[in-house]
Amino acid sequence: MSSRFAPRPTRTTVRGGETAVPSGVPRQSAAPLTRSWKPPFPLDLGVTLGALRRGPGDPTFHITPDGSVWRASRTPEGPGTLRVALRAGTVEAEAWGPGAPWFLDRLPTLLGASDDPSAFEPRHRLIAATARRRPGLRLARTELILESLIPSILEQKITADEAYRAWRLLVRGHGEPAPGPTPRMYVMPDPRTWSLIPSWEWHKAGVDNKRASTILRAVKVARRMEEAATMEPLQAQARLELIPGIGPWTSAETVQRSNGAPDAVTVGDLHLPGIVGHALADDRDADDETMLSLLTPYKGQRHRATRLILLSGHTPPRRAPRMRKTDIALL
Fold first, then answer.
1. Structural domain contains residue 13
2. Range of 76's domain?
3. How confident is the model at residue 22 (pLDDT cuts 50, 70, 90)?
4. Coiled-coil stretches, from where to where (predicted)?
5. pTM tops 0.90
6. CA pair distance 109, 104, nearest whole angstrom
7. Given 37, 72, 118, 234, which residue has the most CB atoms within 10 angstroms?
8. Are the beta carbons of 275 and 266 closer than 8 angstroms?
9. Is residue 157 one of the residues assigned to a domain?
């Protein structure tokens, strides 16, 4: 074990007495491993790690009122929980479970140490203003494929609320409680458990056979999928797209998170072309072709450009009904 990781007692003291774990969370006897890291760049934890969250009720992700970010993942070493806080410019991390050393080893990478925003040159006033306002944006890199791939498959061609519900139900129903004093968090199922989920459980979660079958094909070759986390983004996308049911939209959504891919622009999205068109050309009817044309000046950094556009809040007002919820019984 690396000497920079040290077990921390389960109790620490602050002015006024003992610190408390989040309300309603049982105490755990195992002390966490800890690591401190001072990033040599501005860092906004919420903005950087927020892209990993799958809806407000994501059982694998939680932000506490003090700004700490909690993540529960199935690492190559086993389940792990990571708590990250930023205090006076220093990242303080605690990790529990078999995956704790793996988490702490990769803490800088997760928080954008391998990201290079200096390669990004704003060419539009809106993007330049947002970049100045959000200097702490870094592209997170989890180095974990399935934890981004599976929820991305669930999000195919349905509303975000439906996809978030499916993720919650499947992870809580078939995953396992996350290690450590977590705020009721869960680690997603391992590949074998995903493969054994009965058809009626997919149905209860609102997942049609097409998406369920795609997930089952992916977990069947989980090791080959996870290898993509070490590849260049285009190679990684090509690897993922070998699985029937995984196309450019899903592969881009995955490698944006797993590989920290700055140019993996999401093509095939229902809303993104209109958002980009509205922000850069006052064209809310833009399609994918128009969006890619508008993003041409940001070649190599197109995902970063779209993140900044979304963070700007400059989105077109809705004028059409939202995507209708899907009744899978009719499929």
1. no
2. 32-121
3. very low
4. none
5. no
6. 10
7. 72
8. no
9. yes
DSSP state of 61: E
| 291-323 pLDDT tens trace | 999 999 999 999 999 999 999 998 887 655 455
pLDDT at residue number 29: 43
Question: Given 121, 155, 190, which residue is the final one in a domain?
Answer: 121
* Same domain (yes/no): 239, 276: no
**Cα→Cα distances 88→26, 37, 68, 91, 171, Å:** 29, 11, 13, 8, 35
* Max Cα distance, the chain (Å): 60
Secondary structure class of 141 (helix, strand, coil): coil
Alpha helices in the chain (DSSP H): 45-50, 100-105, 107-110, 125-133, 146-154, 160-174, 191-195, 199-204, 209-220, 222-226, 233-240, 248-258, 272-281, 288-294, 302-312
How are the residues of the chain apportioned to helix, strand and coil, as percentages rounded to the nearest 5? Answer: 40, 15, 45
pLDDT recorded at residue 324? 55
Write the pLDDT tens digit of every residue in 90-131: 999 999 999 999 999 999 999 999 999 999 999 999 999 999
**Own/partner pairs for 232-235, CB < 8 Å, 24+ apart?**
233/259, 233/261, 233/263, 233/264
Q: Which DSSP helix (H) or strand (E) runs through 36? A: strand 33-37
